[in-house]
Design goal:
2 domains; metal-binding; 10-stranded parallel β-sheet; alpha/beta; UDP N-Acetylglucosamine Acyltransferase, domain 1; Spore Coat Polysaccharide Biosynthesis Protein SpsA, Chain A; binds uridine-diphosphate-N-acetylglucosamine; EC 2.3.1.157; 10 helices; binds magnesium ion
């Protein structure tokens, strides 16, 4: 039977070193707050319940967690008296029976399901506490793992460590899995008699070992436990995370000519056999179907791109852009809150906003949907197989019917019926020989000066 699992996310910290008015865990990687990455990781690792301990910016942090985990229990730690004290803020959640408790930090966004899974596996195999440890040549600042054989007997914080203990390079990543029935009793025995006067979560290791519990260290890759404290670390973590996304997309069958120049968001969905050229940015909410091609230098967010559609180069798709099968949006075009029908073409220097374009219509270069009057947004509807001549302004609300034809340079303020031809421009007048006369006059004017 699957083991039940409560995840406790510690997210009370302020993060002074971020130099920010915003709580640390709300800074983003791949468009998702740090704490969101942690929540998603514990969910994939099988957490059936979630408790989040908040403090600084409590309401904002809770609001960021809710959309990902509607049933998350939020606990407030008013005074930050240490990691054990923080876990105890979720006492009410710990009082309900549960097999496994995962304790994770809200500022370690690169934690992977596999690392969490390994710690839970240790519990399933009989361990009572599994601590996620990592090996490093530069252990300074971390708690050191003190092992006896294959058992962990204590974690000693840097400040409490003897010179000999400081030589140990197997360190505490901070995250743990603990058998639910033991955790509260252990936490209640933790004291704050140490250099920082804090209640250390790490003390449950020695307490557990003394009570003959089985305590183990599970070695995980250092990436998993990287905590974010500064903007530099945030940027470094973003870079590691982006690298993971690129690898994952390549493995799933996406072609990238220069993967290191393509930026993903946490929710980017790209089907196999999509081709992505260099220098492409995916903001949140992008979904791309098979065989689409994203040409170089395109900026895409909140957009759905149909199969075999073509985007860019230099295209901007904003939220609500929906491109149907084989649609094309070319260079220097912006599409916002608009549906572009199957096989329709918006190829050059165009703004399509708050609009719908029917299948196989052709939108000429320099077409603008004038969707905003300074107060309200209005809709433009273009039917199927319509042709909009270059440099047309479509003043919304307006409709251009199926098969209609709009002459270049038009300003369209009235609806155009199906199959009608619309001219919205002054008629051209040609005056024979007048160019010559004009030149003579201007030349004379210049010589008189
Ligand atoms: C902790 C570990 C250390 C480990 C390191 C890994 C303890 C005592 N030490 O040290 O062994 O090597 O992580 O990065 O656990 N928090 C609260 N409330 C508090 C205190 C902390 O919510 O009262 C949160 C922080 O916001 C942070 C996390 O818990 O997300 C860890 O706290 P932090 O102060 O960074 O612990 P470290 O000193 O880094
Ligand atoms: Mg820390």
């Amino acid at each position: 039977m699957a083991r039940s699992c409560l995840a406790i996310v510690l997210a009370a910290g302020e993060g002074t070193r971020m130099q920010s008015a915003m709580p640390k865990v709300l800074h983003k990687i791949g468009g998702l707050p740090l704490v969101g990455h942690v929540v998603r990781a514990v969910q994939t690792a099988g957490a059936t319940r979630l408790a989040v301990v908040v403090g600084f910016g409590a309401d904002e942090v809770a609001a960021a967690v809710r959309p990902l985990a509607a049933k998350a229990e939020i606990f407030t730690q008013t005074k930050r008296l240490g990691t054990a004290h923080a876990v105890l803020a979720a006492r009410a959640a710990l009082q309900k029976p549960v097999d496994d408790v995962l304790i994770v930090f809200g500022d370690t966004p690169l934690i992977e399901e596999t690392a969490l899974g390994a710690a839970r596996q240790a519990l399933a195999e009989g361990a009572d506490i599994a601590v996620m440890g990592f090996h490093t040549d530069n252990p300074s600042g971390y708690g050191r793992l003190i092992e006896k054989g294959d058992r962990l007997v204590a974690i000693v914080e840097e400040k409490e460590a003897t010179e000999a203990q400081k030589q140990i390079t197997f360190c505490n990543g901070g995250l743990m899995a603990v058998r639910g029935k033991h955790l509260l009793a252990l936490l209640d025995r933790v004291e704050n008699k140490n250099t920082r006067g804090e209640y250390y979560l790490t003390d449950i290791v020695a307490l557990g070992a003394k009570r003959k519990l089985e305590v183990r260290a599970v070695a995980v890759g250092i990436e998993n436990v990287i905590g974010i404290n500064t903007r530099l670390e945030l940027a470094e973590a973003e870079s590691l995370w982006q690298h993971r996304q690129r690898v994952a997309h390549l493995q799933r069958g996406v072609t990238m000519l220069a993967p290191e120049t393509v930026y993903f968001s946490y929710d980017t969905q790209i089907a196999a056999d999509v081709l992505i050229e260099p220098q492409v940015f995916f903001g949140c909410g992008v979904k791309i179907a098979a065989r689409a091609v994203i040409h170089a230098f395109s900026h895409i967010e909140g957009a759905e791109i149909g199969g075999a559609a073509q985007v860019g180069p230099f295209a901007r798709l904003r939220p609500g852009a929906q491109l149907a099968q084989s649609a094309r949006v070319g260079n220097f075009c912006e599409v916002k809150n608009a549906a572009v029908g199957a096989g329709a073409k918006v190829n050059h220097l165009t703004y399509i906003g708050d609009a719908s374009i029917g299948a196989h219509s052709n939108i000429g270069a320099g077409t603008i949907t004038c969707n905003y009057d300074g107060y309200n947004k209005w809709h433009t509807e273009i039917g199927e197989n319509a042709f909009i001549g270059s440099n047309t302004a479509l003043v919304a609300p307006v409709r251009v019917g199926n098969g209609a034809y709009v002459a270049s340079g038009s300003v369209i303020t009235e609806n155009v019926a199906d199959d009608a031809l619309a001219f919205g421009r002054a008629r051209q007048v040609n005056k024979e020989g007048r160019a010559k006369e004009l030149r003579a006059r201007y030349a004379a004017l210049k010589s008189r000066k």
